[in-house]
Predict the 3D structure of the following.
Amino acid sequence: MFVINPDSFLLPTYRISPFKTEHININAQLPKDDFAANYFNNRFGEGNWQYTYNGREAIQKALEKYQFAKSDLVTILTTSQNFYISSCVTKEIETVCQWNREIVPETKLIFVNHEFGYPFPEMEKIVALGLPIIEDCCTTFFSQDESGKIGQYGDYSVYSFPKFFPIQIGGLLVTNTNEKLVESKRLQQKEIEYIQNTLSHYLLKEVEILDTRKKNWEYAVSLFLKLGFETRFQQQSNTVPSALVLKNNGRINDLNAHKSFLNNHGIQNSVFYGEEAFFIPIHQNLALTDLDYFYYVISFFINQ
C-alpha cells in the first residue's frame, strides 16, 4: 500500500540525484582514498582535469579561458534541440557574454549540452565548423557515443558529480588543450579531500552502479509504458540516462499540476518545457518498490 496526500511533515524524499540524507553519515565515515584521482588521470590524462565546487563553477572556469566581451555570443546546442535549457547553464554564460540557440555568423563558441545523459548526435559536424567548443557532460558522466569521444570533442568538458553519485558537491573541469588549469577558488582542501574520498568509494562500485541503474531503467519503462507514456530519447547500449524523460502522449491534461502533485508526494520532477514531456528520478539508489510508488502516484493523478 502507498499513501496519497500524506501529512507534509511525513513526505518521502526522492531526488533526481542519488543523494539521500543517510549519505551524510556514510560519506563522513569514508577513509582517505586517492582512487578517484588515479581514475581521472587514466581517463583524462594527468594534469588535464581539476575538481570544482560544482558543475556551474566548471562552466564558469571554462568560459573564463576565452576572455569574451560582454557583447560576444555563445550558441547553446542540446541533444533534443528543444528550447529547454537549465538556468544553471544560461546564468553562467550571462555573467560573461550573450547566448542564443542557433549558430550564426556572430557565434564565438558553441556550448554543447549532452542532455539527460544522451550525447549530441552530430558532434563531428560541429567540430568541422572550426569554432571553439565546450561540452556540457554534467549528465553524461558514464555515457558515450559510438566513437567513444564524448568529452573529447571540445576544448573543455564539464561534469557534475551529484548527477550520478550520492554527494552534495563536486564538479570537474577537463581540458583537451595544452592550457594549464587553475585550481578552484571555491574549494577548500578539506572539501577536495571529501570529494576525492567519496568519489573513490563509489567509483570502485562502478560496475554495480551501472548494473542497478540499467535494471531500474528497464523496470520503470515497463511500468510507464502501461500508462501510455513512452521514452523521449532513444536508448542506446552506451548511454546512461540521468533521469527518466517520458513523452506524455496526451495522458496528463495539466503537466504543471502533475509536477506539483509529484512534488507534494516527495518526488522531484519537472516538465520538459517546450514539449509534452516530463522527467522523474531513475538512479541506482532507488528500489523497485520506489518505482512502484512513482507509478502509483502518477496513476492516481491521471485517474482522479
Q: What stands out?
A: The CA atoms of residues 45 and 53 lie 21 Å apart.
